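A student in our group prepared the protein record below, which I am reviewing. What it holds is a sequence and that sequence's fold in token form. My question to you is simply how this chain folds and whether the tokens agree. Do not assume that whoever made the record got everything right. I have pasted the whole thing underneath without changing anything:
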Amino acid sequence: MLNMLVKLNEWRKMRFPDGQAPSVRVCRREIDLGTLPGKRIGRCYYVDLEREKDATGDEMLDDLLSH
């Protein structure tokens, strides 16, 4: 499966209505913790759209389904 990475700021604009998005800091923390599928490349954060779309919200189930 090909990873479709989108810059964090672009993802926030696409995913949430104006003024409703969580802060960049919160999103970065969620990526670092692994609860938001994405990665840090250098100083930039990206969200993996394919993995986010397939996520169930249950960490253990998502881990099982990813193998």
